[in-house]
Amino acid sequence: MIYFVYKCVVNNSVIKRSNTKQIKTMERNNNFEVALVKLACPICGKEVEEQIIMNQKLTPKEAAKIKAMHGKIVGYANKVCDECAKYKDKALFVVEIIPEKSDMKHLETIYRTGRYLAVLKDCNFYKDAKKAIIKFGDDSEMIFVDEETFSKLNEIYKNQKD
Q1: Count of Cβ atoms closer than 10 Å to residue 76 Cβ
Q2: Under 8 Å between Cβ of 134 and 93
Q3: Mean pLDDT across the stretch 35-61?
């Protein structure tokens, strides 16, 4: 805690007094935190962008939650990273997941294996998968598939040229 101390000179001697209003203000600030958090590429998981967040509920518990998030990846961006963006116009990104471990309600709760590939949009798989494709703000497209489907797609399209 920081204390503000004011000096007053009385009869050539120094008297120190603290301002209690200033001290109370500093104590209240323990209820407020700001953090710089990161968002990941929804395809490869690399850092894409940063955001500043702060707690809206001014309690020590909520402030502690925000403080713990500082510098961490907290979700996925609505765009892909620069590396994946090179292929977004030509390809559909296929991301392997484990459905049994996934809650399919949110992108953040889907259990990914870490494997992904890009399939050219002129292939039959792209045409067949239109209904299941997730589109992002930068017009990149992605689909989640299970391990078996991913392995088959990887085998079929591993020799495609970009």
Answers
A1: 19
A2: no
A3: 93
Measured CA angle at 107 (ends 103, 110), to 5 deg? 40
Q: Show the tokens assigned to 52.
A: 């500043």
Average pLDDT, the chain: 82
Q: Tell me how long the chain is.
A: 162
- pTM, two decimal places: 0.71
